[in-house]
Amino acid sequence: MNVSLKCIPDNSVTGYETFRAGSFAFSRCEYFAYIDSPVGEHVMPIDAFLKALMRDIAWGFFYGTVAFDDVFGTTNHYGNVDMFLGTFNEEWVKAERTYSENFRSDELMAVFKAMISDWTNEGFDPFAAPQETGNAWGRKQGNEDALIERKREVAKRMVGIPGDAPLRTDENGYPVNRAFLDVDQEQPVIEAEPGFEDQLYAFNLFGYLSRSDVTWNPSVASVVRQSLFCPTTEEFVLPIAHGNDRVEWFVQLSDHIIWNIEDKHTSAPTATVTMRAGDVAAMPGDIRHKGLSPKRSLLLVWENGSPEIQEMIKNGTVPMVPVTF
Amino acid sequence: MMAEYKTKFASIDDYTKGGIQILNEDPKRFVFSNLYEVAATSAPYERVVVAKNLDYTIEVSRAENTSDWYVCSHDEFVVAMDYDVEVHFVKLDDEKVVDENQDGAVKLQGHPDGRKMGRILMKRGHQALLPEKVAYRFQASAPATLMLQTLIGQESVEKWGDICIK
After folding, report:
1. Second label for A237, Cα 20 to 30 Å away, from A132, A301, B50, B115?
2. What SUPFAM superfamilies does the entry give (chain A) (predicted)?
């Protein structure tokens, strides 16, 4: 039995466009996104789909797998990317409903960007916490291109050094977030001797983060070779499940986050990691994780962006855990 | 009316560690520790590795009184995680004493020869650059927690079995 679930929204009524990438087709109606492949079809709530799509775009397909939910997602091969349906879901695999297609990263990214531009209505910010934005529902009405085209700040050395990523201030459009009004905004005191005024640098990292206008979207605050401090603010639920292809580390700087851990290949739950202020934990390279942050919190994501690791991933030698003891 | 929120920070003398609920996993694979607990249970200025990714590390150091002088062939960064810490800097007269092939911090013997560059006064959440080839030392009037972004080096201490959930 092969029942077609096809539900093609009438674009002439909704005002949205249908998008195609290879043999995949994407449509939306007032409440849902419809993903169609040659062997399977999948439906997601449109708000969840747009929030996941926003992260996949902002992170350039990120490291490893960005799972929009238990069925659909992308896997980055750095220059090219797989888009899959059911590949990492045990039941879809058993039912032989899986479908995967490889794309040039820039080509798929162009489709994704066009899709989020067309499908995001005025008043809905896919980067924002639910309490800080309108909703995604309804027929096409305006756009939020200015919000969805925000770039993540990427420091070359450290935030605040002249010529590098700037500090966030009221004046440049980054007021303190409503959940961090109690975070101290005082900057460190730098007492440089004459002649060394341009060689000593420091900034208020926690204050900088308290002014982030996005959630679940790390920026790069400091860089030691390929060691990237990527702090971020988190609230509600990480819109994707991240199946990394290398070890990733978290340092919880404030409040707490609950991480639901799943098997990378089957999506079966394997553990729950609760991180409170000061906790440090590795996310192994063979799991996927999804965070829940009851209050907006400060999280340091620590990544190793070494090209050496990409080679190790290709030849299968990248370690799944950072240390053994 | 706007809701009021209280941000929960922790410190070397006030922290509550989280944990791991296991269904089908080995908890050791998460290498789970708490940096305030590490600072609270370590010797002053011991540089304990709490996160490692190949040669890159995040190290935790308990600041208390005045540290030795350190230098590094590459940039490092330090974040004050709870209480006040000063960082003092000296521009070395002879940068050739820094071994370009040595990663991580190197402890110097005595006071380095060079010019005072100044100092940075850090409070909780403040991050400072520890520039390459510049000598630095820390000073804290009370125990405090430092987090360092660096590479594994001769001062790095790995004691995973002591600090991690098993």
Report:
1. B50
2. RmlC-like cupins (SSF51182)
- For the record, the structure tokens of A251 come out as 């340092």
Q: A275 is in which domain, residue-wise?
A: 178-315
Pairing of strands B47-53, B156-157: parallel
How high is the pLDDT of residue A2?
56
**Domain boundaries, given as residue ranges, for chain B:** 27-163
Q: Does B1 touch chain A (CB under 8 A)?
A: no
What is residue B147's predicted lDDT score, i.e. its pLDDT? 99
Tell me, what DSSP letter sits at residue B27? Answer: G
Q: Which residues of chain A have pLDDT under 50?
A: none
Q: Is B152 on the interface with A (CB under 8 A)?
A: no
As to burial, measured by CB atoms within 10 angstroms (0-12 exposed, 13-18 middle, 19+ buried), residue A198 is exposed
For A204-231, what is each residue's pLDDT tens digit?
999 999 999 999 999 999 999 999 999 9
User: In this complex, do A304 and B54 lie within 8 Å of one another by their Cβ atoms?
Assistant: yes
Q: Domain for residue A154, yes or no? A: no
Residues of A (209-238) whose Cβ lies below 8 Å from B:
221-227, 229
Q: What is the pLDDT of residues B110-137, one digit of tens each?
A: 999 999 999 999 999 999 999 999 999 9
Q: Tell me the CATH architecture of domain B27-163.
A: Sandwich (2.60)
Domain count, chain A: 2
Q: Check residue A78 and report its DSSP letter.
A: S
Tell me whether residues A323 and B31 touch, CB distance under 8 A.
yes
Q: In what order do the strands lie in the sheet with A41-45?
A: A19-21, A24-28, A32-36, A41-45
A272/B21 Cβ within 8 A: yes
Instruction: Please judge whether B34 and A199 are an interchain contact, meaning their C-beta atoms are less than 8 angstroms apart.
Output: no
Residue A215 belongs to some domain of the structure: yes
